[in-house]
Amino acid sequence: MNRPALDYPDFRHILFERREPGILWMTLNRPEVLNAADERLHTELVEVWNTVHRDPTVRVVVVTGAGRAFSAGGDLRMVENAYRDFQEIARILDEARDLVYNMLHCEKPIISAINGPAVGAGLVVALLADISIASEKARLADGHVRMGVAAGDHAAILWPLLCGMAKAKYYLMTSDFIDGREAERIGLVSMCVPHQELHRRAMEVAVDLATGPQYAIRYTKRALNQWILQAGPIFDHSLALEMLGFFSADMMAGVEALRRKERPRYPSGAQEEG
Question: Which of 105, 112, 95 is CA-nearest to residue 37?
Answer without folding.
Answer: 95
